[in-house]
Design goal:
The protein has helices spanning 12-18, 27-36, 79-87, 103-109, 123-126, 136-140, 145-150, 154-174, 183-192, 208-211, 236-249, 268-273, 276-288, 302-311, 326-334, 346-349, 364-376, 378-395, 398-417, and strands spanning 2-7, 43-49, 58-62, 65-70, 91-95, 115-118, 177-180, 197-200, 223-227, 254-258, 294-298, 314-317, 338-341, 357-359. The chain is α/β, with parallel strands linked by helices. It folds into 2 domains: 2-135 and 165-204 and 398-417, Rossmann fold; 208-395, Rossmann fold. The strands form 2 sheets. An 8-stranded mixed beta sheet has the order 3-4-2-1-5-6-7-8, with helices on both faces. A 6-stranded parallel beta sheet has the order 11-10-9-12-13-14, with helices on both faces. The radius of gyration is 22 Å and the shape is globular. The mean pLDDT is 93.
């Protein structure tokens, strides 16, 4: 089977080998490609649209995967046709429907080739939660010079989501098949296109998260890990309010925040990247006096993140909306006791009271209480840890996921050819 993946960005490893930039680590794509490429009878190609520096098609084989980097003029010229003619795929798998450069692929070739879209989020649903409880005044007083110059304030961010929602609608209406990870995925995609055939497939998680294991005896007590806190939807501002409450019970509580957050930019480039949301978080930390209870870890690769998860007391996913967060899957695989907002597809992954604890996103009081439940009762934490680990390791078992995805491809090809 010849499989062509269309992705929005490359893994740092592949990007470096191809000498192009990568905006972030698409960990689930990287993990699945590592498992899938070695299967008998499978040929895998990964295509991505390059930046302005890419003026002609790049093709290169790296570790048994054929990579195509399309030139920046993909919206004006049929570059996808060049890739398809060269690789001759049996099926095309589009990861996400938020990138305009994938639209020509879908509109020109979805009726000519079996094609499926992986849901990486439902933008038209995310749009309504974008401010995540922030008031207009809070947003206005946090705007930075970079926000104004680059038109990327929180207000601009919501407007971009609204525009992307129309792009998403065109993509979802242009295909017959989608793949997702939760009932929430299925319901919201079918609200866009009721003719879609939905397939369920959990994401592949990177190897280090299977290799580390949380143990109550080896943790740093009264610690919390939060990551992906770059914009309001991720809910860090609500977590800070909860942390203030937790501190009144546990003065020694410490929260680790993973990710590249720079509160004191020195260079012009970093100052331009200093966002209004970062400024809002900085002011909130100072207002609540939480400086001594927070540590920013910087970017953590898979090995470092798995190690951190194995050492903290609790992992919190405080998002206003999620379709099925990788952060939760990674923590559950390690066995870190988890607290998550009851949002989107998260309840499908973390069953409240069974393998973790849930709360309503807009209630920092309940978030604080849920975290304290673990701090107060080490046995509860250990029990939930074991249950979460068992469920996650069954759900994200690599061979099983390869079989599921291969089966989906077979079904889509068969259904497409039968029409």
């Amino acid at each position: 089977m010849k499989i062509l993946w269309a992705v929005n960005t490359l893994s740092p490893y592949a990007a470096e080998a191809l000498d192009i930039s990568s905006s972030h680590a698409i960990s689930w794509v990287e993990a699945m490609s590592c498992e899938l490429k070695g299967r008998e009878g499978v040929s895998l190609a990964i295509a991505v649209c390059g930046g302005k520096k890419v003026t002609s098609m790049i093709k290169k084989e790296i570790d048994s995967v054929t990579y195509y980097v399309l030139p920046y003029d993909v919206l004006r010229n049929d570059r996808w046709g060049e890739v398809i003619s060269d690789f001759c795929p049996d099926i095309i798998h589009v990861y996400g429907c938020e990138n305009a450069k994938n639209l020509p692929l879908i509109e020109s070739y979805a009726k000519k080739y079996p094609m499926i879209i992986s849901l990486q989020g439902i933008i038209h649903a995310y749009h309504r939660y974008y401010y995540a409880g922030m008031t207009r005044g809070e947003i206005l007083t946090s705007i930075t010079a970079g926000d104004l110059l680059l038109k990327r304030s929180i207000f601009h961010g919501k407007r971009r989501f609204k525009k992307q929602a129309e792009l998403e609608r065109r993509m979802l209406c242009g295909v017959s098949y989608v793949e997702g990870r939760s009932d929430w995925d299925r319901v919201f995609s079918e609200c866009v296109n009721r003719r879609l055939k939905y397939y369920h497939c959990p994401r592949m998680i990177r190897r280090p998260f299977y290799e580390k294991s949380w143990n109550a005896e080896g943790i740093e007590k009264h610690t919390i890990l939060v990551h992906q806190a770059s914009y309001p939807i991720k809910g860090l501002h609500v977590m800070l309010e909860a942390l203030d409450i937790i501190r009144s019970y546990y003065p020694d509580v410490k929260m680790y925040i993973a990710g590249n957050i720079d509160f004191n930019p020195k260079t012009l480039k970093k100052k331009l990247l200093y966002t209004g949301y970062t400024r809002f978080i900085k002011k909130k930390i100072k207002k609540l006096g939480l400086e001594n209870n927070i540590e920013f870890t910087g970017y953590l690769d898979a090995e470092a993140m798995a190690q951190k998860l194995s050492r903290v007391n609790v992992c919190v996913v405080p998002s206003a909306i999620e379709n099925a967060p990788n952060a939760l899957a990674e923590a559950m695989l390690v066995g870190t006791p988890c607290v998550s907002s009851y949002a989107g597809g998260s309840p499908d992954m973390l069953m409240d009271g069974k393998c973790g604890l849930l709360y309503r996103f807009e209630e920092p009081e309940m978030l604080a209480y849920r975290v304290r439940c673990y701090f107060d009762a080490p046995k509860l934490a250990a029990d939930k840890s074991q249950c979460a680990k068992e469920i996650a390791r069954s759900r994200h078992e690599p061979n099983k996921l390869c079989e599921i995805l291969s089966g989906i491809y077979t079904q889509v090809i068969s259904d497409y050819n039968g029409k």
